Design the sequence.
């Protein structure tokens, strides 16, 4: 974990309302593990004082990139950043995805920026398995070719059928469990909207396999001090708060009190 | 020669006048990887009450113009948990540790103070009075002068440690509370706590925070805090610790100039974890540039 | 069908709930070239006292994070000057004129109110109590409940016009002042006035403003104002006019949702002169989009 | 006076810390008179809520331009504006320079952005006279060729002697009064730092001619409502406040209480 002044190398919209920001950040790039995030102070946006958390997408040497969606003030203003300009980043933060357990078969489940958040894992994971990408329509489906280039079997579902199979990601996932999972010991790695995380957790329980889910609670400090980002996790018979920015953002799905997740 | 920026807050000797604000720096370990804790003037930890508490439901914070609204709800490990989990870590550093305490009743405040009294490595107590008295009509201790007096007296009776009540900002006469604290034997006062506020969601037709109201902090409250610190410092002889929206050395110099003997950095640490250390460095550089030999010559130097 | 956004503030009928905040819209003519005054819910003019006053020396304002600090010092033409120079102009428009009054003594407040009582074209009086009682120890009328009660009673006795005391924000129990105003026969209350603050200049080692302290206004105070308006509206039956940092329809809808029956746009008019008119338009559009037939269904609709 | 969304046509640094911002603003451009100003809301600078006042430099048809110096937050942020972007302007504001009185000889005295503020007057004034430009050094001297192209006799002085004659503008002005003013009925038009305004006012009194001085008090609303920008002007035996944004920014020098000007 460190504070670093990163320099923008390239910055452009890639698809729909998603943008690719590539920066030179040797310190953070050298340390980041799959599932971790960086905390960015958006330049020129002084009246918004908090940083904004983004999962690390790719790292090549000192080059670190994020894929972000324009959803509000910060992400809108971020788009004005041009190559050569610098920004303050804090990272790598949080507790990312563990290594695939020996003998397990990796199953990735992603929605929205989750596809970017799982890329590093997909690349560093020795065993290439199957990846389920879901979204509202084609423009919400990112990085398919990147994953395929790495040797992953990517299954796309879109709610409007504009790409891949029509329906929710769970449709394809359930089919897979029904007809293809046999002989595999699946281990799920999930990053996407709350609904997708819950559905995956539920499948993991049903099929008695492990699911690693990455939550995206709103954050303040990003380092465990402000207690903004907490969520309820099991603690014996009772529950306790866990910090998405420290103990998470990746949790074993069986530890989370899903019904309590906001 | 480099100026002397050490300061003393009611018996707490600090190598520089910049401490962390309670609740914005955890208990120390959270930032230890990013900041050399030994370079801080003092560490003020997150508020501690008698027993472990879970705090509020979510959302707990929301961003507002040039500020942050928070209603964390004072979750914490309680006295015993704090002493067990954090004091050993904090003792490793050469920095005064100020424990911020709170309670639901006057008795709880006194009890917590008593239990911390003889603990090695604790330099002093800051008292958060911006919470309701659940036993007596749940009025907030810090905005009722009689209750404020009783709670400060009760704590004073329970500890020999340097005592620093932290004043609530939402009162019409801050000097009255400052003088009361001094009269009750407080060794210093700190202000301001975050300002009671509200944010609402027009779409949901409800408050944004689970707790409904929250405390406003950050640059937005700096002008309000500066005036209150100025008035409080003029009202008492004991040292005043100023805070509220400090994010750079210039901000800190302003609080010191109006009479604060030290300052605390709060919300800004969330944005730039190294703020407190940078502020201390900036204060030294400014005094050097201005040819001011000692911080004490700058404190209260405003012409007004 | 387009929703009904008319509202009534203690006998003042407004075609829409958006008025100008005193001191931020001059006396009307200043903005007449830029804004159709007939589209305003009401015009609240700059504060008037008995005789012409010159106000403070410079600097009178300074910018702070998401806000403005001002100490204009209430310059004005006095009652006679106002009636002579501005009322004829204001009578030309189809918009309620609310005169904001102030005084250095209780007698002056009552005197000013009496002189405006029978004037045609004046819809009501707003009372600025955020100024010191020069005759009695110069405590501020608005932060001393006894003085506040006396001044409101005195004015009530001097006028039949709809009376709207404007509450000072720097008190610990706003509900107490709201109830007091209601008990003294006020027809409405407005809040918040700008928040007492301080800005200093480290280079000059002095306050920025000639008056030293000033009032903070703008987006920075919105969360503070929202909470106070919410508490005040819950405390009384008379209508509440909410203000503090309103710069768009969403801001106004927030104040209305927490219980305000109307809102005032202040500092934002300096930035975008057409703010009040745009806000009224935005409120109508929002209610229409939400299928809410009448503003009254939105007022106080917060689930809290 | 109107609110207008102007569109940036060109924007570039021209000299020292001065920038030229050209925008398309047909409404304001059509109405502006010499000495008037526009009030600009700097985009992307939400935490600074006030507009910033700038004198109008040139107008050609719908094209309106200002010359501004980077002195703080607003003017620094303004520099990020790019062609095609739009900004909110309020104007034309204030009471500018009157027309030269028949038979008078126009004398312009300018420092800093004052050279830009006097350009429109220089162009529209039928009689071309002499213009005295003063600054600390060469990079503070603007638009000389523009004024010469219009037929003005420009006399430059710089404190460091890097351009024109070394010394203050008053040096050249006093010489002119001593040796060249004879036979002329000089009328002074002045825009520059406070010291320069005072000096010019003093010369006007000494040589019994009229001086029109443009003040640059800090402003809030720019339209006469907030009373931020006031200055003390003579009112019989006593004084009264005048608003720089309404009654000014241009005043007859004999009306201003110079010793009171902050
Ligand atoms: C661990 C983690 C990893 C993330 N990775 C990515 C990523 O790779 N790509 C991507 O596009 N987005 C990512 N997000 C979400 C991203 O942080 C938010 O979209 C962003 O903060 C919105 O900021 P804004 O100012 O544009 O929106 P705002 O105007 O602030 O709010 C718009 C929406 O964003 C949400 N939001 C606002 N602030 C935060 C915050 N501090 N944390 C989380 N959500 C917030 C709000 O709840 C609101 O729904 C991640 C979030 C987390 C917690
Ligand atoms: C009628 C008039 C015409 C002007 N014309 C020009 C021009 O053509 N070119 C040019 O470069 N400058 C001009 N100025 C000055 C210009 O308005 C200020 O330099 C600008 O507002 C500074 O804003 P800032 O945010 O960059 O500086 P800030 O960081 O806000 O402050 C830096 C300095 O600018 C001064 N200042 C800040 N705000 C204002 C304000 N609202 N009004 C005046 N001064 C202020 C402050 O006193 C401070 O000294 C003019 C000013 C006036 C009143
Ligand atoms: C998230 C958060 C938690 C806080 N927790 C405490 C606390 O436990 N006890 C306390 O006395 N003050 C607490 N405060 C108030 C700060 O210590 C400080 O008084 C206030 O934030 C103003 O300073 P700032 O503007 O620099 O943040 C908290 C503030 C924030 C933002
Ligand atoms: C420049 C200025 C002058 C003001 N003058 C008065 C006044 O004369 N009387 C009064 O009651 N309030 C006065 N106010 C307070 C406003 O009416 C309003 O209560 C306050 O600014 C909060 O609203 P805002 O944040 O929308 O500006 C003034 C405010 C400003 C900024
Ligand atoms: S974001 Fe602050 S504790 Fe997690
Ligand atoms: S700037 Fe507001 S009155 Fe001149």
Sequence:
């Amino acid at each position: 974990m460190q504070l670093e002044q990163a320099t923008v190398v390239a910055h452009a919209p890639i698809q729909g309302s998603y943008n690719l920001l590539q920066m030179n950040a040797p310190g953070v790039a050298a340390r980041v593990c799959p599932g971790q995030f960086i905390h960015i102070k958006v330049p020129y946006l002084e009246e918004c004082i908090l940083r904004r958390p983004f999962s690390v997408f790719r790292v090549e040497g000192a080059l670190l990139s994020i894929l972000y969606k324009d959803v509000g003030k910060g992400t809108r203003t971020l788009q004005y950043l041009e190559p050569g300009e610098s920004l303050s980043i804090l990272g790598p933060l949080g507790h990312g995805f563990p290594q695939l357990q020996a003998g397990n078969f990796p199953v990735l489940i992603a929605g929205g920026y989750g596809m970017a958040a799982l890329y590093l894992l997909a690349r560093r994971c020795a065993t290439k398995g199957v990846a389920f990408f879901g979204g509202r329509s084609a423009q919400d489906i990112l990085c398919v070719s990147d994953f395929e280039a790495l040797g992953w079997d990517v299954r796309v579902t879109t709610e409007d059928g504009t790409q891949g199979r029509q329906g929710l990601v769970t449709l394809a996932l359930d089919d897979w469990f029904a007809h293809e999972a046999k002989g595999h010991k699946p281990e799920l790695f999930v990053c996407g909207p709350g609904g997708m995380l819950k559905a995956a957790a539920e499948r993991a329980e049903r099929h008695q396999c492990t699911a690693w889910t990455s939550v995206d609670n709103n954050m303040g400090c990003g380092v465990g001090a402000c207690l903004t980002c907490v969520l309820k996790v099991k603690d014996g018979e009772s529950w306790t708060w866990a910090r998405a920015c420290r103990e998470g953002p990746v949790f074993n799905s069986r530890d989370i009190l899903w019904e309590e997740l906001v | 020669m480099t100026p002397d920026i050490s300061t003393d807050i009611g018996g707490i000797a600090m190598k520089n006048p910049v401490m962390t604000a309670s609740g914005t720096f955890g208990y120390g370990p959270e930032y230890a990887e990013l900041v050399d804790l030994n370079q801080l003037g003092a560490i003020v930890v997150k508020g501690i009450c008698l027993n472990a508490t879970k705090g509020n439901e979510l959302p707990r914070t929301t961003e507002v113009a040039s500020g942050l609204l928070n209603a964390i709800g004072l979750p914490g490990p309680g006295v015993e948990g704090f002493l067990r989990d954090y004091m050993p870590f904090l003792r490793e550093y050469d920095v005064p540790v100020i424990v911020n305490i709170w309670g639901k009743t006057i008795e709880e405040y006194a009890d917590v103070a008593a239990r911390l009294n003889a603990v090695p490595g604790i330099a002093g107590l800051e008292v958060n009075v911006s919470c309701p008295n659940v036993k007596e009509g749940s009025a907030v201790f810090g905005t009722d002068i009689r209750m404020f007096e009783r709670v400060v007296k009760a704590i004073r009776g329970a500890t020999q440690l340097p005592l620093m009540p932290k004043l609530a900002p939402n009162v019409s006469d801050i000097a009255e509370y400052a003088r009361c604290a001094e009269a009750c034997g407080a060794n210093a006062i700190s202000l301001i706590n975050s300002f009671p506020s509200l944010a609402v969601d027009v779409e949901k037709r409800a408050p944004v925070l689970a707790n409904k109201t929250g405390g406003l902090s950050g640059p937005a409250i700096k002008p309000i805090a500066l005036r209150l610190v100025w008035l409080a410092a003029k009202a008492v002889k004991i040292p005043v610790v100023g805070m509220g929206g400090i994010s750079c050395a210039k901000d800190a110099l302003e609080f010191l100039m109006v009479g604060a003997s030290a300052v605390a950095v709060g919300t800004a640490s969330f944005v730039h974890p190294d703020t407190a250390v940078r502020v201390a460095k900036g204060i030294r550089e400014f005094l050097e540039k201005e040819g001011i030999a000692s911080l004490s010559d700058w404190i209260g130097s405003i012409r007004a």
Summary: The first strand of chain A starts at residue 2 and ends at 15. The mean pLDDT of chain A is 96.
